[in-house]
Amino acid sequence: MPGRQITQLELKGFKSIRQLNDFRLESMNVLIGANGAGKSNLVSFFRLLGWMVQENLQQHIGELGAANSILFDGAKSTPQIEAKFSFQTDKGLNEYRMRLMHAAGDTLIFADEEYRFIPNGVDEEAGWSSLGAGHRETGLIQRAAENDTAGFILKLLKGCVVYQFHDTSKKARIRQNWNVEDNYFLKEDGGNLGPFLYRLKNREGEHYLRIVRTMRQILPFFGDFFLEQDGPSIPLRWTESGTDMVFGAGQASDGMLRAMALVALLLQPVEHLPPVIILDEPELGLHPYAISIIAGLLKSVSVHRQVILATQSTAFIDCFEPDDIVIVERKGRESIFTRPNWESLTEWVDTYSIAELWEKNILGGRPG
User: Fold this and answer.
1) Which of the chain's termini has less CB crowding within 10 Å, N or C?
2) Backbone φ, ψ for residue 338 (5° rounding)
């Protein structure tokens, strides 16, 4: 497994996830389950984490409808959220844990927040370093200025990035012009796709050409991106084969925009990618052939980066290996995450694909 990845995760009390204990994460993790099973709730927690490490936890809680709406069965039933991350790196084990308690104003505050580092070859567990209690935003940022371990763990947590390119409405950011200077990292919603591609074209030519060639595989009529500066902005535009017309983002289908964003994300230089890439239903709106291409890119990326994705597409599922699969089921009020025991399913696997086993409910988590 590549370094700087999550090896284990514990999560309790968040939305439908009442208790997720010692959950093992691999380089590729494909969450499958019916509608409402809880796949997206795990993705939602990573999104909350992203806001938290930017000191915007309270804002995000408000946007989610206040704390009561994200606590398992509400604050009366579950007054706190607990989480623990374990990151294995070349030098040892980095761990972070927090406890968010329901507080006045229907918000959450830190009841506990701790971190530690256990070097390789050390049998005795290191003690936890406390960041105190009662604060509304993470204490890691302030501690990181004076402590190398806190700074490193903050960097690891910031490296867990959720990408979702679902919003392709007329007012979506991906359809708008974007400042040319904001081009180094692709935004989580693909909003700066034009400037991002512009930078790749001018500084990472080989990667840019791979993106164009891949878009031509997905969309045979695609010619090239047309990336010309318009004042301080770079509009997302492209050309098509057989015509000299230039097309703008407003003329693109939803699936075309999502394919552009996914291909650009996954074919950029790998050293620019975050250590942990989280995607919710990346196959949405894509043609089956495009789905197979995106799955291939994700598998290639997972050699160097950790991938966590949620899907309910049978075509997508069959692109991955059995050991990549995580079944998500709703039992009563809670979501249960399990990895199938493939040794006990050997006879089934020899006859049926993963998607067929899922559809037959042999794996559990029957499709909805």
Assistant:
1) C
2) -140, 155
Tokens of 157: 């947590």
The Cα 69–Cα 107 span in angstroms is: 10
Q: How many Å apart are CA 51 and CA 189, to the nearest integer?
A: 14
Q: What is the pLDDT of residues 21-34, one digit of tens each?
A: 999 999 999 999 98
b (16+ CB within 10 A) / e for 331-364:
eeebbbbeebebeeeeeeeeeeebbebbeeeebb
Instruction: Report the alpha-carbon distance of residue 242 to residue 270 in Å, rounded.
Output: 33
- pLDDT 10s digits, 63-110: 999 999 999 999 999 999 999 999 999 899 999 999 999 999 999 999
Can you give the pLDDT at residue 214? 98
CA 87 to chain centre: 16
Is residue 247 exposed (0-12), middle (13-18) or buried (19+ Cβ within 10 Å)? middle
Cβ count within 10 A of residue 286: 22
What pLDDT is stored for residue 367 in this prediction? 62
Containing 24, the helix (H) or strand (E) segment is: strand 17-24
319: nearest Cα among 30, 50, 34, 93? 30
Residue 342 confidence (pLDDT): 82
Return all residues near 46 (Cβ < 8 A) that are at least 6 apart. Answer: 160, 162, 278, 308
User: Considering only CA atoms, which of 114, 14, 111, 9 is closest in space to residue 61?
Assistant: 14
Q: Any idea what DSSP says for residue 319? A: T
Model's pTM, two decimal places?
0.94
> In terms of C-beta density within 10 A (0-12 exposed, 13-18 middle, 19 or more buried), how is residue 225 classed?
buried
Distance CA 45, CA 25 (A): 15
Give the model's pLDDT for residue 124.
74
Q: Per CATH, the architecture of 1-159+321-368 is what?
A: 3-Layer(aba) Sandwich (3.40)
SS3 at position 38: coil
Low-confidence residues of the chain, pLDDT below 70? Answer: 1-3, 365, 367-368
